[in-house]
Write a structure and sequence with these properties.
- This protein folds into three domains: 179 residues, NAD(P)-binding Rossmann-like Domain (Rossmann fold), CATH 3.40.50; 99 residues, N-(1-d-carboxylethyl)-l-norvaline Dehydrogenase, domain 2 (Orthogonal Bundle), CATH 1.10.1040; 104 residues, Rossmann fold, CATH 3.40.50.720.
- The longest helix has 18 residues.
- With 506 residues, the protein is of the alpha/beta class.
């Protein structure tokens, strides 16, 4: 039997409430279910019975456990039936007034030592608990959908929450088979806060006309290793969930530029293009399958020009080796010949800026993203500037696709695509640590389990170099003049002196 809470009440039996009830019952707790909607509790019990039966059919649990687990689900006719619960978790609609009213009523019903928890994803725990006589027993207990599969839960302390309450909830989470991460009461807590960089920066890239939705998704999957591209992910989570979260965190942080939402999602939400659940989002869906436009084939020019590489190119030695492997004719003079393809590999700067600063012929200049080691990627990304000739663009595309690796060609952008998105993710994560919202370790755990990134954001920064990430941000600030890209002090200081981004001061 679970030592933290032997009896748990769940208020709200939608997808989240059902999921919490499932893992609470599996941990050994008696679970009381309440919902104001007629028939909702019975529907939840039927659903969970089916879930457990399927697990038994697959051999994941013993068949004899199914009736035992079902027996732990007790329908509650009223909130007063939760009086004996040691813990009550509310999982109702995401409205401050409704949750406050519920918590006030629960406070008058449960025992003085009972814990009240909110599954809120966006509301302040401090604000929810403020009207209560005993706010010290209120905490956030934020699970992710689907609860049984998403093995992380944020335990959130409000300003008045007792530490012992969070400790008991963390213990309970572990008994449920989940990993607890401890968070301070700030907008978005850990996961929804850290997740702002992925989608919002991708939307900004599209809004600048750099690339379309499918191209951005391909680049971030194949070059950076994300399981889903940002637009695939937003179609999966649905814009009626994603866009309000973007706006909520942005406004709660008093219009912090790093979290600025995009008119693209606002407009598509208004049009009802929500994603998979409506059959139309950033992609069109037929029988649940996204209809993704095919990539155009690589050009096949009759001949390729010689290639000259800027002396300031990132990973210059590796780029030279790549060109040799591809069989390119490489120029090594101080300046390019009149017919050469000019290659630049900036960090954070756009191709135009580099061409102007280095006094290169922009009509022959093409950029390549070399933030990540070429051997570690399944896709190369090139960028043109507004003056790049079509024949030079096609020559670069053909050359870098000649060994069969996929190539995307995007329009000019500070930081290409991957640099922009990765740097934004790392920077926001670094600032979460700077604000002491959570520990670096809990941040990494929360993001990898809650968002499914290939690496935690701090590990991402370490792998591709804190100094490189810092350079990308500084240079993007120069290109765009936007405070959105100002480096966090956590990143700036560690990048400047060569420390890991996970390093904590003694």
């Amino acid at each position: 039997m679970n030592a933290a809470f032997t009896s748990t009440g769940i208020v709200g039996t939608g997808a989240m409430g059902r999921g919490i009830a499932q893992i609470a019952a599996q941990s050994g707790s008696t679970v009381y279910l309440f919902d104001t909607k007629p028939g909702a509790v019975d529907a939840a019990r039927t659903h969970l019975h089916g879930q457990w039966q399927r697990l038994a059919d697959k051999g994941r649990i013993d068949a004899a456990q199914v009736p035992v687990l079902l027996g732990r689900l007790v329908p509650a006719a009223s909130l007063r039936d939760l009086a004996a619960c040691e813990l009550v978790v509310e999982a109702i609609a995401e409205r401050l007034d409704a949750k406050r009213e519920l918590l006030l009523e629960l406070e008058s019903i449960v025992a003085p030592g009972a814990v009240l928890a909110s599954n809120t994803s966006s509301l302040s725990i401090t604000a929810l608990a403020a009207p209560l006589t005993h706010p010290q027993r209120v905490a956030g207990f934020h699970f992710f959908n689907p609860v049984p599969l998403m093995k992380v839960v944020e335990v959130v302390a409000g300003l008045r929450t007792e530490a012992a309450v969070c400790a008991r909830l963390a213990q309970y989470a572990r008994a449920m088979g989940h990993t607890p991460v401890m968070a301070q009461d700030t907008p978005g807590f850990i996961v929804n806060h850290a997740g702002r960089g992925f989608g919002t920066e991708a939307l900004r890239i599209v809004s600048e006309g750099v690339a379309d939705f499918a191209t951005v998704d391909r680049i971030l999957r194949d070059q950076a290793g994300f399981k889903l591209g940002p637009f695939e992910l937003m179609d999966l989570t649905a814009l009626d969930v994603t866009h309000p979260a973007m706006e909520s965190i942005y406004h709660q942080y008093y219009e912090e530029p790093r979290f600025r939402p995009s008119p693209i999602t606002a407009q598509r939400l208004a049009a009802g293009l929500l994603g998979r659940k409506t059959g139309e989002g950033f992609y069109h869906y037929v029988d649940g399958a996204a209809q993704v436009p095919a990539e155009p084939p690589a050009p096949r020019p009759a001949s390729l020009p010689p290639v000259w590489v800027s002396p300031r190119a990132a990973r210059r030695a590796e780029l030279y080796q790549l060109l040799k492997n591809l069989g390119a004719a490489i120029e090594t003079g101080a300046t390019p010949s009149a017919g050469a393809l000019i290659l630049v590999a900036p960090l954070g700067f756009d191709v135009t800026t580099v061409a102007v600063v280095e006094r290169l012929d922009p009509t022959r200049t093409v950029g390549i993203d070399m933030l990540i080691d070429d051997a570690a990627t399944r896709r190369r990304v090139l960028a043109t500037n507004p003056a790049t000739r079509e024949d030079m663009r096609d020559a670069a595309h053909a050359l870098f696709a000649s060994d069969g690796k996929a190539v995307s060609v995007v329009r000019d952008s500070g930081g290409f695509v991957t640099q922009r998105v990765v740097a934004t993710i790392v920077n926001i994560a670094a600032d979460i640590c700077q604000q002491r919202i959570c520990s670096p370790q809990d941040l990494e755990t929360a993001v990898t389990l809650g968002l499914g990134y290939p690496l935690g954001p701090l590990a991402m920064g370490d792998r591709w170099g804190p100094t490189n990430i810092l350079e990308v941000l500084f240079n993007m600030q120069t290109v765009y003049g936007d405070a959105r890209y100002r480096p966090s002090p956590w990143l700036r200081r560690r990048g400047a002196i060569g420390l890991s981004l996970t390093h904590e001061e003694p």
